[in-house]
Design goal:
- The structure holds 2 protein chains of 2 kinds.
- Chain A is an alpha/beta fold.
- Chain A is built from 11 helices and 13 strands.
- Chain A has 2 domains: about 220 residues, P-loop containing nucleotide triphosphate hydrolases (Rossmann fold, 3-Layer(aba) Sandwich); about 60 residues, 2-Layer Sandwich (Alpha-Beta Plaits), CATH 3.30.70.260.
- Helix content of chain A is about 35%, strand content about 30%.
- A 6-stranded mixed beta sheet of chain A has the order 5-6-7-3-8-9, sandwiched between helices.
- The chains are: A alpha/beta, B mainly alpha.
- Chain B: Keywords: Membrane, Transmembrane, Transmembrane helix.
Chain lengths: ~300, ~525
């Protein structure tokens, strides 16, 4: 079953169109990474999923229901961490955690204590005295404390230190083990790479790529560094790009579907050493965003 | 070395001018408009001479607004117009200082600035210069405006400078409150508290005849010390300057004694757990509002109590000419008697027109703030419906306003009863206060409707509606519009001019129903729109 499903989802503010048809499919039990730079439409999409914003067009289904109509019933089954956590300045972190937890139902005090310890949060401080990272911890603890089946996290770690980032990742893995579905929006690609089963890349209000990391990698080029005994003319090979030569080593990138041809062509040239690096998520991402202005020119 | 502390003041001042390019002109022009209103009022009146004579002979107006000094058209303008303008400038100046000092510090934006070569004092200095400059500008414009209306140059200038001095004093108060409190909200509350104290001093001065030493404690009544167009005691401005410098100097002294971001009031650790009942949007709304409800209740009890105790001092003698005045207002006062009239007007101003209207609007606007600051999102992403969230806040607003009115009625009634030894007053005063509940609820309903459907401009519209209603009230008082116009406002149905035992209950019930209907419509609007 798909936990989140949107088809041609659009949202416009007056004349300005924030989403131009977002197609998302998040399956049950998976950790889904929703990546894109600031202003691409990540938070808008999430806020539609939460029933805070009204969609302008298209279909959206969350846990089998309509996020606008069935907000209260659906919110019983999910926990949300906003990107910019703002908390009531006169309440302590502990009070906020208790309050938000009780809106869902009962709180497990043992689990509460465990999470406070793991995230090293002092629950006695007033929220206005917390740093951004600590406010984020309050929201995260509150989310992990709930027994929601879906976690929606909007850039949840942008204020966390590396130690806490690790704790966060542990919690996500635990959630996954329990069969929960996790939807994370992020622009920290290392985090997405470490956590997510599948990834969707959003650009200018549209999903431009989605699939498992393996599938995405397959769509893009592998970087090859090779040292050859014989001289070679790489330019003539199909599917080879960005050729450079340094200290006798060739470095170039190869389209996934051209790999076989290229390897066959290289083999007789006396390969002394060869490394092939799969594209990082960053490269995948930059492929869509590196040519920043292309999209605008097309319009 | 010393002057390094002021480094960057000029640059900051430029920044503040840029940030205040709308707000600064607003509070300066508002002051001018208030004077202008009174000028055109008085001039439009064919028999202003008689009107002034009558008003100044009336013990009840004297107690509230003070005697008209000098007894001339200029005096009549100072009496209400300058008073209101001064209060505006006092708030404009003090809130401007807080806006650029404590608010900036609390938000952390100040760190961006203090990380640069900017002196310790620069921030406070620039804010004070801006506020005092604004006050002075308002004063000079007032002087020019009065002169252009053909009033004497010396008196006009003195009136303007007195206004400027009051503004400067409150700029200093704003600076001081900013040092003491860690949060801008508390600092603003502190300014308001100081203002309440000055109001008491002003009324005591008025009841005492207008020339008592109390006037020194009430900057809004400083024109009763300098006496423009009358005694023209310009040299007393020098004392005002010294008085204004005091809170400023104190602010600088406190500034160097405290840490960046800290106040003088030590921050407390809170509880690690929430009490078990803290589990619903209603509990949250109560938790967020109870402080301000308490402050309002205490403020009302304080003002109502003191005024109630003072009521027996209001002379019951009605000037002979007063009874001849042909405005509905005058005849209503004659009917009520001066003491009862004083109390009725007091309860009306505190409990409806000036006080609780403001409370009601600000409480409902708290919803907007919760939404804008993304607090609402935290709650609404949980299994909480939009209507539950909004109704919870409104319920606290309804209950809170009723509670404040109950306190106001109890304490004012007790004050009057105890001071006069006549306990029959008590229930009447309580009735006056409680009769304001339906109209106050109607304001909450209007505010809820605006918030539900047009949150962005809703808050401005809200104040505008209140302003128009108050304007209608003023027009009615001087007899320019009739009672039928008043009936378009919710003020009319619990109006002070109607003796409490003659007040009809049916319109109050209708108002309550209207309030409920408006609230319901507001919730429908809120459910239909996007959040944030």
């Amino acid at each position: 079953m798909n936990v989140i499903e949107t088809r041609k989802l659009t949202k416009s503010y007056g004349k300005q169109e924030a989403l131009h048809g977002v197609d998302l499919t998040v399956r049950q039990g998976e950790v889904y990474g929703f990546i894109g730079p600031n202003g691409a439409g990540k938070s808008t999409t999430i806020r539609i999923l939460l029933g805070m914003l009204r969609k302008s067009g298209g279909d959206v289904k969350l846990l089998g229901g309509d996020p606008w109509q069935d907000a209260v019933a659906l919110h019983k089954r999910l926990a949300y961490v906003p990107g910019d956590v703002n908390l009531w300045s006169n309440l302590t972190g502990g009070e906020v955690i208790d309050f938000l937890g009780r809106l869902h139902g009962k709180i497990n005090p043992a689990r509460r204590k465990e999470l406070l310890d793991r995230f090293q949060l002092d629950p006695k401080k007033k929220c206005r005295d917390y740093s951004k990272g600590n406010r984020q911890k309050v929201a995260l603890i509150s989310a992990f404390l709930s027994d929601a089946e879906l976690l929606i996290l909007d850039e949840p770690t942008s204020g966390l230190d590396p130690l806490m980032e690790l704790t966060f990742q542990e919690c996500i893995f635990e959630a996954k083990k329990q069969g929960k579905t996790v939807f994370i929006s992020s622009h920290i690609l290392a985090e997405v790479e470490a956590l997510c089963d599948r990834v969707g890349i959003i650009r200018q209000g549209k999903i431009v790529e989605s699939g498992t990391l393996e599938e995405l990698r397959h769509l893009t080029r592998t970087t090859v560094t090779v040292e050859l005994a014989k001289p070679v003319n790489l330019d003539q090979l199909q599917g080879v790009h960005d050729i450079s030569q340094k200290e006798g080593k060739w470095r170039f990138s190869v389209d996934a579907n051209a790999m076989e041809t290229v390897m066959n062509a290289l083999a007789p040239m006396g390969i002394k050493s060869l490394t092939a690096e799969p594209p990082t998520l960053e490269e995948l991402f930059m492929r869509h965003y590196g040519d920043k202005f292309e999209g605008k020119e097309l319009k | 070395m010393k002057q390094n502390h002021f480094a960057g003041t000029g640059k900051l001042l430029k920044l503040y001018l840029r940030r205040d390019r709308i707000i600064l002109p607003i509070w300066i022009l508002l002051a001018l408009m208030l004077i202008n209103g009174q000028v055109s009022f008085t001039k439009a009146m064919p028999d202003w001479q008689m009107f002034i004579n009558e008003l100044s002979a009336s013990p009840i107006t004297s107690a509230i607004l003070g005697p008209i000094v000098p007894l001339s058209i200029e005096g009549a303008i100072l009496w209400r117009g300058l008073l209101q303008a001064i209060i505006t400038v006092m708030f404009g100046a003090s809130l401007t200082v807080i806006r650029h000092t404590r608010t900036e510090e609390a938000s952390g934006r100040n760190e961006l600035i203090l990380g640069r070569p900017v002196g310790r004092y620069a921030n406070l200095s620039a804010a004070l210069i801006l506020s005092c400059g604004g006050s002075l500008l308002a004063g000079l414009l007032t002087a020019v405006f009065l002169m252009s209306n053909g009033f004497a140059g010396s008196g006009s200038l003195l009136a303007g400078l007195t206004l400027a001095a009051s503004g400067c004093f409150f700029a200093g108060i704003g600076g001081l409150c900013s040092q003491i409190f860690e949060h801008s909200g508390s600092a603003r509350g502190c300014v308001f508290g100081v203002y309440m104290l000055t109001m008491v001093a002003m009324v005591l001065n008025n009841i005492g005849g207008g020339y008592t030493g109390w006037a020194w404690f009430a900057p809004e009544a400083w024109f009763r010390i300098t006496l423009p167009f009358g005694g023209n005691h310009a040299w007393k401005l020098l004392i005002f300057i010294v008085l204004s410098a005091l809170p400023m100097v104190l602010s600088y002294m406190l500034l160097v004694r405290r840490d960046m971001g800290a106040g003088l009031i030590v921050r407390k650790e809170g509880s690690a757990d929430a009490p078990p009942r803290f589990n619903s949007p209603m509990a949250l709304a109560w938790r967020q509002q109870k402080g301000s409800i308490l402050v309002w209740a205490i403020g009302m009890a304080w003002l109502g109590g003191i005024m109630g105790m003072g009521t027996p001092n209001v002379s019951e003698a009605i000037s002979s000419s007063f009874a001849h005045m042909d405005t509905e207002w005058a005849s209503a006062i004659v009917k009520l008697g001066n003491q009862e009239g004083f109390m009725a007007i007091l309860i009306y101003m505190l409990g409806l027109m000036g006080g609780l209207s403001v409370f009601a609007i600000t409480v409902v606007q708290r919803l907007r703030r919760e939404e804008k600051e993304h607090y609402a999102e935290m709650v609404l992403s949980r299994p909480v419906s939009c209507s539950n969230w909004m109704v919870s806040y409104l319920a606290v607003a309804f209950a809170g306003s009723a509670l404040i009115l109950l306190v106001l009625g109890l304490v004012s009634g007790l004050g009057w009863s105890v001071a006069s030894g006549e306990f029959s007053h008590f229930l009447r005063v309580l009735g006056m206060s409680l009769s304001k509940i339906p109209p106050v609820w109607t304001i909450i309903g209007i505010a809820a409707l605006l918030y539900g459907w047009i949150p962005r401009i809703g808050s401005i519209l809200n104040w505008l509606i209140l302003g128009i209603f108050i304007f209608i009230e003023m027009l009615w008082e001087v007899g320019i519009v009739g009672w039928s116009a008043m009936q378009w406002t919710y003020f009319a149905y619990a109006h002070y001019s109607i003796p409490i035992h003659e007040l009809s209950i049916v319109p109050l019930i209708v108002l309550t129903v209207i309030a409920a209907a408006l609230t319901w419509l507001g919730v429908i609007g809120f459910k239909r729109r996007s959040i944030g």
